[in-house]
Write the structure tokens for this entry.
Amino acid sequence: MLKELFYTGMGGALLIKEELKKLEEKGKINTTDTKSFLESLKTKGENEETRIKEELKTAIREVIEELGLATTKDIEALRK
């Protein structure tokens, strides 16, 4: 599922980039606007990646807790 989501996002970003290039060539938008928009997309993508990673970590922690699996912290406490 994550792989498909990644590929969809990348495909969408590439399509947008190609369309912006076409508009730029036709003179409908300028290079500065294009670069600014692409930078904005990149920043939003990076922020979304961070958010998704945090959500995954939280979900994994919840599953570990529900299953009653020992964590590194639990094992270290037993070693003492």
Notes: Residues 2-79 form one domain.
